[in-house]
Amino acid sequence: MVTYSSRFARRCRQLQRLLAGTARAARVRRPALLGAFWWDGHRNFGDMLTPWLLPHYGYVPVLRPPERANLVGVGSILEMVPESYAGSVWGSGLMIEERRAFPSARFLALRGRLTAQLLGAGPAVPLGDPGLLVSRHVAPAGHHGKVVVLPHGHHIHDPHFARLLAQTPELTRLVRYDRHPEEVARDISGAALVVTSSLHGLVLADSYGIPAVWVTSDLPLGGGDFKFRDHESAVRPLAPRHLRLTSGTALAELRAAASTVPRDRVAELGDGLEAGLRGILT
Q1: Residue 282 pLDDT > 70, yes or no?
Q2: Going by C-beta distance under 8 Å and a sequence separation of 6 or more, which residues neighbour residue 134?
Q3: Can you say how many angstroms the Cα of residue 280 is from the centroid of all Cα atoms in its chain?
Q4: Going by C-beta distance under 8 Å and a sequence separation of 6 or more, which residues neighbour residue 142?
Q5: Environment class of residue 173 by beta-carbon count within 10 Å: exposed (0-12), middle (13-18) or buried (19+)?
Q6: DSSP string, 137-173
């Protein structure tokens, strides 16, 4: 049986990325191969952002183990990287709120202020999750005006999300975590509100300026809420936007808890992320 993580499937994805990435990168400049590390253990739109974004900036991604990568990209993956790592870190974050050190690494950007503090990075290091760049490459879809409900993969069968969707099916739309980033981006960009337990559901909502609330449920995620707080420390929302889902949570409560990130802050973080990629191989 061919599974997502099988050697055959991994090789097919690598070939597909090389072909598609080369074609896309050639529209920007002469394509440059870039050994990069991201999590590729299962199909998840957030983990697909590194190989999808890099070709927009002229780089053709080749998946490498972290110790052999020139670049570590999107995700809570820094615990997977050896402290001897001497390449570049671009918008990555920690999963667990514990100190680590990468004395030889080059920090092009870190996901949030909390990760930067735990790594001992200076105040000059740019902040931001690269998912904030998605709106620069996928035009907003038509406004469907529904509430997008995007559970983390661990919550796809969570009864609290099922009850929420069943309350007002005419007003809500389930968006799955295992779709392509462009498809997820189009659904989010047309929404009136995003309710999500996926970090990158929140990040993409912020990229498009869509009101969003991140929710927790009875089933905790690895690392708890650290990665969400880390992202929030970079975008600095105007008001808290977290809510715990219960069997009685109503849509009105979620709307009241949601907020948007100022567009100028998203633009500032995006500019810093793009600047970090310039001349990465020089």
Answers
A1: no
A2: 49, 53, 181, 185, 204, 207, 208
A3: 21
A4: 190
A5: middle
A6: TS--------EEEE--GGGTT-HHHHHHHHH-TTTEE
**Residue for token pair 């500032």:** 268
User: Residue 282: what residue type?
Assistant: T
Q: What is the pLDDT of residues 87-133, one digit of tens each?
A: 999 999 999 999 999 999 999 999 999 999 999 999 999 999 999 99
CA distance 210 to 280: 32
3 state DSSP class of 33: strand
Query: What angle is formed at CA 275 by the lines to CA 56 and CA 127, rounded to 5 degrees?
Result: 105
Going by C-alpha positions, the residue among 217, 201, 64, 215 that lies closest to residue 129 is 201
Task: Tell the residue number behind the tokens 């100190």, with chain if given.
Answer: 99
> For the chain, how big is the Rg over CA atoms in Å?
18
The 10 Å Cβ neighbour count of residue 30 is 7
Residue 225: exposure state from Cβ atoms within 10 A (0-12, 13-18, ≥19): middle
Query: Distance between CA atoms of 148 and 66, rounded to whole angstroms?
Result: 34
3-state secondary structure of 59: strand
Cα distances from 39 to residues 50, 62, 185, 195, in angstroms, run 9, 13, 20, 24
Residue 222 burial class via C-beta count within 10 angstroms: exposed 0-12, middle 13-18, buried 19 and up: exposed
| Token pair recorded at residue 145 | 């005006």
Output DSSP code: residue 110.
E
Q: Write the pLDDT tens digit of every residue in 37-88.
A: 999 998 999 999 999 999 999 999 999 999 999 999 999 999 999 999 999 9
